[in-house]
Specification:
The chain is α/β, with parallel strands linked by helices. The protein has 2 domains: 207 residues, Spore Coat Polysaccharide Biosynthesis Protein SpsA, Chain A, CATH 3.90.550; 73 residues, no CATH class. It contains 13 helices and 10 strands. A 5-stranded mixed sheet has the order 3-2-1-4-9. The chain starts with 6 loop residues before the first strand and ends with a helix.
Length: 321
Amino acid sequence: MKKEPLVSISCITYNHENYITDALEGFLLQKTDFNYEILIHEDASTDNTAKIIKNYAKKYPEIIKPIFQKENLYSKGIDVDDLNTERAKGKYIALCEGDDYWTDPYKLQKQVNYMEAHTQCTLCVHAAYMVDVCGKKIRPVRPSVGSRTFRIQEIIEGGGRLFATNTFMYPRALDLNKPEFYKNAPVTDYPLAIYLALHGEAFYIDEYMAAYRKGVSGSWTTTEQSSLDKIIKHVKITEDMLDQLNQFTDFKFEEAINKKKYINQFKIMVAQERYPELKQGKYKTIYQELNKKEKTKLFIKQFFPRTVKLYKKIKKIKKRC
């Protein structure tokens, strides 16, 4: 008799025909001493994503368990992440969207080993590389030099870019009854990390075991962060979420929440090119905490705007595979 899976991999995909193979191969690459299942939510793609998944599901019917939607549910405001994990059987859930992929065959085993030995751990993440649409490395997503536990304050202040979403592993039991601040958030990875950390400990493994893709057509970043108006709207909704989090935690993390709001407002001011104000008032501390590279970028944007525009044009050309 086959044992139930210990890990359920949750993969949400839409129009990822150029990337879904990398994701699936990364799942099947895993070497473990336990069973795992691959739950795929195919959200009515208009390209060949569904066809590719069906071919893999035929080869690995006991592992790959897809759902093929007839209409796009995400566009209707339905939480497709929760919809997919509702059918999970594993003790743990591991996340990876269809345009991202895993690179280490022992990724799942390493995370499970840690979580089984440390039952207080409610979120386990690791380092990843941000890559472009061609798979070329852009920069590391490495929030710490050395493995360690992250405090909730650090996760709040770090925002959605602190951890790569496709490094998340957490107990399936915590997928039930998520709070309102999670449900009302504009994106779910950031509030999910906070919610999970509130229930135990968030542990980071300082090993590169995944690739997080940036710049994919139709992705959240390319659609919802494509204009200043959309960025401002996103920040406003995020602030509402943080206010709800503040009440949910009885204002225990108010200092970190306010600091995160300042950080978000600081980014808007950069986008609005309000450079002199960045070193004044409540934003002065945020500026002072920037590293040398970030300060240099701001200096170039302020005093050499034409050079920045030229650089962006060249970068777009180089992005083509």
